[in-house]
Design goal:
Blueprint: H1 5-17, E1 27-34, E2 37-44, H2 48-68, H3 76-85, E3 91-92, H4 95-110, H5 120-125, H6 140-149, E4 157-159, E5 162-164, H7 178-192, E6 198-202, E7 205-209, E8 217-222, E9 229-235, E10 240-245, E11 250-253, E12 256-259, E13 273-280, H8 286-299, H9 304-310, E14 315-320, E15 325-328, H10 329-332, E16 336-337, E17 345-347
Parallel strand pairs: 15-17
Antiparallel strand pairs: 1-2, 2-6, 3-5, 4-5, 6-7, 7-10, 8-9, 9-16, 10-13, 11-12, 13-14, 14-15
């Protein structure tokens, strides 16, 4: 069965439930449901009026991004997809979308195309382009035709404010990019409003600003098979965490799990990994990278560490298909694992 949105929200918010020792007078929180998940913004030690004004602006920005770049409801993105499918050249797009697509191209190239936002048709074939999900396996002929067409974000030519693609099979879906981008937008808004200490959570993708008093924000990594944290860790100023897992959106049919993380090489849901988490240390667009880079690390399977290195990520964790935990030494030194959880392998 598909994991319900209510369950998704619970799992995603587990990390915030781990926050402890917060004086309610100094902690301010707002939340909403957007990007198909629960989002939360917390600030520390700001006046209530200042904090609520800033957080409300962040939530308005999330709503704008959700509407502008929705993958199947009418949006600037679906208009671009329609124009690509019709074979139109020099399609005008906003400055923001042009920059997002160019950045996504760079990330995709670094990860051998395992992160590829041009796979909207594939996602649609597997039934994940809907809010009312019905488990379905694609028609093999349709799937093979799409694999032969080989839509890739590399097919896009981006010049200033125009986009052209010679491949009409390209259908863009920024679901593996937009949440991270929204983290960076939220951080910029909060800082512009004078908020120095905050934690932003978009469905388990997190970015920290400053600290929670004299301690860093403490967050959790969700266990992919149990309703509890796999581990907790301090998240420091400017750091971002991204997680990809087969428990986030999936269905089960005839005893097999089919998750929304699709391998562009086979057109099939990824197998062999339950979850990966990457921690991106402070740098420009840390939130965006934490979201997008987690996909090639997840789809890379046994080569997960190599893909993390390509993005300059030293802090990473993988839970393989059998539930064994592999973690980099840099991240292990930061983690407090849950009861009975012992890493199987520590790598440099």
């Amino acid at each position: 069965m598909l994991l319900t949105l209510r369950a998704l929200a619970w799992l995603a918010s587990a990390c915030l439930l781990l926050l402890s020792g917060c004086s309610r007078e100094r902690l301010h929180q707002q939340e909403a449901y957007v990007f198909g998940t629960r989002v939360e913004v917390l600030t520390w030690d700001s006046s209530e009026d200042k904090a609520r004004t800033a957080m409300a602006e962040v939530l308005r920005e999330f709503d704008r991004l959700h509407r502008a770049y929705h993958a199947w409801e009418p949006s600037e993105l679906t208009a671009l997809n329609d124009a690509i499918a019709a074979g139109r050249p020099d399609i005008p797009v906003s400055d923001e979308l042009a920059a997002m697509l160019a950045d996504a191209q760079r990330i995709s190239a670094t990860g051998d195309g395992l992160f590829d936002p041009a796979l909207g048709r594939l996602i649609q074939l597997w039934g994940f382009h809907t809010d009312t999900f019905q488990p379905v396996r694609p028609d093999p002929a349709d799937l093979n035709a799409l694999l032969r067409a080989r839509p890739r974000i590399a097919d896009l030519s981006i010049a200033h404010n125009t986009v052209t693609s010679p491949n009409p099979a390209v259908q863009l879906d920024l679901g593996g990019y937009a949440k991270g981008y929204a983290l960076d937008r939220a951080a910029a808004i909060l800082q512009d409003k004078g908020i120095s200490n905050a934690l932003i959570n978009i469905g388990g993708n997190l970015l920290a600003l400053g600290s929670k008093g004299d301690q860093p924000w403490r967050v959790g990594i969700q266990h992919p098979r149990e309703p509890r944290p796999l581990a907790t860790l301090p998240l420091r100023d400017g750091e971002a965490i991204g997680t990809s897992g087969d428990y986030q959106r999936f269905f089960e049919m005839e005893g097999e799990r089919y998750c929304h993380l699709l391998d562009p090489r086979s057109g099939q849901p990824a197998q062999g990994t339950q979850a990966v988490t990457v921690l991106v240390t402070p740098r420009p667009r840390a939130g965006t990278l934490s979201d997008a880079a987690s996909k090639p690390v997840y789809l890379g399977g046994e080569a997960w560490r190599d893909y993390a290195r390509r993005f300059g990520i030293a802090h990473a964790l993988r839970v393989d298909g059998a539930g064994r935990v592999e973690v980099t030494r840099a991240l292990k030194d930061r983690l407090q694992f849950g009861k009975d959880i012992i890493p199987t392998r520590v790598v440099d």
